[in-house]
């Protein structure tokens, strides 16, 4: 039996990378999906792909920084599919990069808004809709766990904040049957990875930091998210799950 049969899931940041790969995998495992991102065309192509394979999905484009958008995603899940079981709050950005004394308050605030506050807003509306328990998953990063590289203060702070949010929500809502976990990728070959590492030498340097000496693939991360979303992880909550190719171990 499919591991997410009859489950309803919201996935943000679904237009590309880890979010898109996870949406495909969730649909293949039987979930009905609400997929979200800023880019409507990419969402439409994802929905068409899922439906062509026999799955069910609906898209809503918008900005995860908006509280009204967070609420609208939950409302859409309920109106279209009747319930909500899973939320993968995956949308994120590298944000304001550079020496900390060169980052202005607007850059700092926007990075935290996209990476951290959006996750809080999502959970604020998602958790009450999970009447019979559910699974909430955040995308943090090894940077939020082992420490950042220079020039990543805003990104590191926002992703470390997600780990704290995960643990707080897990303890608060565990008695209601809601599990909350974070997945912590290393480098993954996505648009963000290629934009940040735009030469072969840069990619080789980053890849070599991993114990496995390569970057991950979006499908590999999707499988870890599937575990946290499914009943296979029924006794797992409050965790920061490293799926980083041994990068954190190699840097220890």
From TrEMBL:
GO terms for molecular function: oxidoreductase activity, acting on the CH-OH group of donors, NAD or NADP as acceptor. Pfam families: adh_short_C2. It comes from the Bacteria. Belongs to the short-chain dehydrogenases/reductases (SDR) family. This is Glucose dehydrogenase. It comes from Niveispirillum cyanobacteriorum. The lineage of its organism: Bacteria, Pseudomonadati, Pseudomonadota, Alphaproteobacteria, Rhodospirillales.
